[in-house]
Design goal:
single chain, 376 residues, alpha/beta, disordered N terminus
Length: 376
């Protein structure tokens, strides 16, 4: 299936992605969603996400070629692509790309303007750099995991959203785009070292400021934004589902109390000694009706209250449906590209790239005929 660079602000930008799992593919998907021509270099029989490739939406809007980097001519094929690319992304452990012959020096020898993006958990140096790891370990060391959850229970695991994707993928994309701007202005490429520990720590900047100012306690469930506050958290409803409350400002708090139907707590907003009493009153009210009944009560208000929806429910919420926050492509419901652009709109152009399916087209479009060697 032939594909050309799609609409979007990155139309015309060429990206090589050395196949991996997790934050690297997600970062490359974001670049592809923004219109870049992303060519994923898959290994023969290589393991990707442990699902059928047909459903791996992190490979949407991309093309795939197969190159065996351990074959004698494998590195040369990748270097041919790098010579014609603006960006290369890899997620190996430190020094692995160098040993394979496709490290930064090898690539920059062919293309001095190349932005070489490196996605790791621990970073390119430091005592833990060569060690294995996953999202949960990275966010544990940064102090962010320890902030999440109830004080009497172990820290709650936020899937792999906080480390892999927020602290990892998004920082890699920001770094790659900044380095691309620099490369186009100066003609000089560089290496972007995106470590999940760095990005996740950076996400907690505001919290560290509050901690230094004495406005944040270094423990779970004791602060304004971590569930310690009775008007910023989640509450179970009569049907075992949940409502989320974020009525921080005075006017929102007042509307929250009014719609919830409790009186006598207007002064409890800043009185920590009454937070336990207020929480009990809020709990009692929410357990008196179902989630959807409460959602109807708060609909259209400024009380900053919303139902907690499941993954299956979210695409059908009227607001998200009206905005097209989710889209259906190839029979798969998935998040639509974000953010949105007035002059260069984005879209899901193609479904997940099948390993090696686009080798012939990429060989032609990128003028790398040697990619066809070994094709049956």
């Amino acid at each position: 299936m032939a594909t050309t660079p799609g609409p979007g602000p990155l139309s015309g930008v060429r990206v090589v992605e050395l196949a991996g799992i997790g934050p690297g593919p997600f970062a490359a998907m974001l670049l592809a969603d923004l219109g870049a021509d992303v060519v994923r270099v898959d290994r023969p029989g290589g393991a990707g996400l442990a699902i059928d490739p047909e459903f791996d939406v992190t490979n949407r809007n991309k093309r795939s070629v197969i190159v065996d980097l351990k074959a004698a001519d494998g590195p040369a094929r990748v270097l041919d692509l790098a010579a014609r690319a603006d960006v290369l992304i890899e997620g190996y452990r430190p020094e692995v790309a160098e040993r394979l012959g496709v490290g930064p020096e090898d690539c920059h020898a062919r293309n001095p303007k190349l932005v070489y993006g490196r996605m790791t958990g621990w970073g390119q140096e430091g005592p833990l750099a060569p060690r294995a790891g996953h999202d949960i370990a990275y966010i544990a060391l940064t102090g962010t995991l320890g902030m999440i959850g109830e004080p009497s229970r172990p820290p709650a695991v936020p899937a792999n959203l906080l480390g892999d994707y927020a602290g990892g993928s998004l920082y890699l994309v920001v770094g790659v785009l900044a380095a691309l701007h620099h490369a186009r202005a100066t003609g000089t490429g560089q290496v972007v070292d995106a470590a999940i520990v760095d990005g996740t720590a950076h996400l907690s900047a505001m919290i560290h400021g509050m901690l230094a100012a004495g406005g944040w306690q270094d423990r779970r469930g004791a602060n304004l934004l971590d569930g310690g506050c009775p008007y910023y958290g989640t509450y179970e409803t009569a049907d075992g589902k949940y409502m989320a409350v974020g009525a921080l400002e005075p006017q929102f708090f007042e509307e929250f109390l009014d719609l919830l139907g409790i009186e006598g707590y207007a002064d409890a907003r800043k009185d920590w000694s009454r937070w336990g009493e207020l929480r009990e009153a809020v709990v009692a009210r929410f357990t008196s009706r179902t989630r959807d009944e409460w959602a109807a009560v708060f609909e259209g208000s400024d009380a900053c209250v919303a139902p907690v929806l499941s993954l299956h429910e979210a695409p059908h919420h009227p607001h998200l449906a009206a905005r097209g926050t989710f889209t259906d492509h190839g029979g798969i419901t998935q998040p639509a590209p974000a953010p949105r652009f007035s002059a260069t709109p984005t879209q899901v152009r193609t479904g997940p790239a099948r390993p090696g399916a686009d080798t012939a087209d990429v060989a032609r479009d990128w003028d790398v005929p040697d990619l066809l060697k070994g094709l049956s």
